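Exercise 3.2. Students should predict the tertiary structure of the chain below and write it as structure tokens, then compare their answer with the key that follows.

Predict this chain's 3D structure.
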Amino acid sequence: MADGTIEAKVGDKDQFEFIKKCLAFTNWNINAGPNCVGLPKKAAYVDTLASPGWGVWPCHQVDHPSYLDKVSVYLNDTIWLMCQNVAQDCKVTGEAIATALTQASKFWLAKLSNRPTAAAWATRKQNPKTWYIPFSMDQDNPSERKPPPDWTGLSASSMLSRLSELFAML
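Answer key:
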């Protein structure tokens, strides 16, 4: 989570500065491998040449803002407030903060991983009311979506024709 995001979510400059100082006590890196995962974008689900590894991950472009809000609330409630409470007694350590952040990272990674997105995509027409849930980063509150059409069987000329129709509607 970027400094700008933390500052916007915290809303209090003093609290934001405190969080930055807490992070400075650690060697924890938000950009380290265990803390970041490359989620597929929408094109990966329709591109037949895309890597097949997307089939267990949500889409990066689906419900990202609400997911980020939940991560922010979680960090505030489980880490930043704890740091503030123990900092008054000078009992906060960089190691404790890094451990809490590592546990938070694992918690959120578990919420994102092992989704049945490939199966949901394959059966989207049969399950129009639930197919989209695994694609949401915020699986507890996914935005309802209609199943997109299957374009895999279309030839290049019929796809261009279909795209022309769609753009004419805009």
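Discussion points: The mean pLDDT is 81. The chain is about 50% helix and 0% strand.
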